[in-house]
Amino acid sequence: MSKFGTVVMGPAGAGKTTFCNALIQHLRLNKRSCFYVNLDPAAEDFSYEPDLDIKDLISLEDVMEEMGLGPNGGLIFCFEHLLQNLDFLTNALEPLSEEYLIILDLPGQIELYTHIPVVPTLVKHLTRFGSLNVSLCAAYLLESTFVIDRAKFFAGTLSAMSAMIMLEIPHVNILSKMDLVKGSVPKRQLKRFLDPDTSLLDDNNGRNPSRGFGAVDPADTGSVMGGASFDRLNKAVAQLIDDFSMVSFLQLDVQNEDSVGGILSYIDDAIQYHEAQEPREPHDEIADYGDDEMMG
Description:
single chain; about 300 residues
C-alpha cells in the first residue's frame, strides 16, 4: 500500500508549525485525511493536536535535565534515540491508507539535516530502507524577510540546497510570511528572488564592496560585514547556488487559502499523490455530503 507525506523543515522562526496548521486546516476543508507527526521534542503549543508526538517517546526538557546537555546537544540526542526506536514511527504509520497525507513537522535546528546524518537516516527509513515505503517530499521554508538582506537570503538558500543534496528526495522550497514584505518590497523585485542568481548581489544596499581591508576596523562588526572580503564570500556562495541551479522558491501567505492550496498542489505533484487515488463516483460525493449533514 502506498503512503504519502511531506517533511516540513527550515530554520527557526520560518513558520513551519504555522504552515502545518494551515495545511491541516486546508486538507480538512477539502475533506482530505492527514496524519500530523510532531518531531520537535521541545514543541509545546499546538493549534491541532499531533496524531503522533515525539515527546511521547522522549522530550528535550528531560534530556537536558537528566543528561546535562544544552539545547542543541539535547536535540541531537533525542533524534539519535528516535533512530534507535524507529518502531515508534513505523507502528503508527503502518496502518495508514494511501488517502492520508502524512505531515512531519521538524525542529528548526538545520544542522540536523545539513551537518549530521540523523534526519537523512530517518528519511531513508521512511522512504526506502524501512517497511513503510512513503513517497516523501520536503517542504523547506525560508522567511521572506530574508530578501531584504541579500547575504542572509543567499545563506538561507545555501542551507536549502544543502538539505536537497543531503536528503535526496523531491523538494518544494517556500518563501514564507509573504504578508510581512508585501508593503516593503515591490512585486517585480520580489520575483527576482524566486529563482536566485548572482545578479541579486549587484544591488549591494549602499555598501561599498571596493573598500579594502585597510579601511576596516576589526572591532567594528558592521564594517567587517560590509567589507570587500564579505562581498567576495557572498558572490562565491551565490555563484555556487547558480552553478547547481537547483533552488527555486514558491510564495506562501498562510492567511490566504489559495496560497496554501497552491503549495499543496506542488507537494501533491512531487509525491504523485493523485495518481495513486482511486476515482470517486458521483454517488460517493453525495454520500459524503449526506454524512456531513447528519453530523451537523
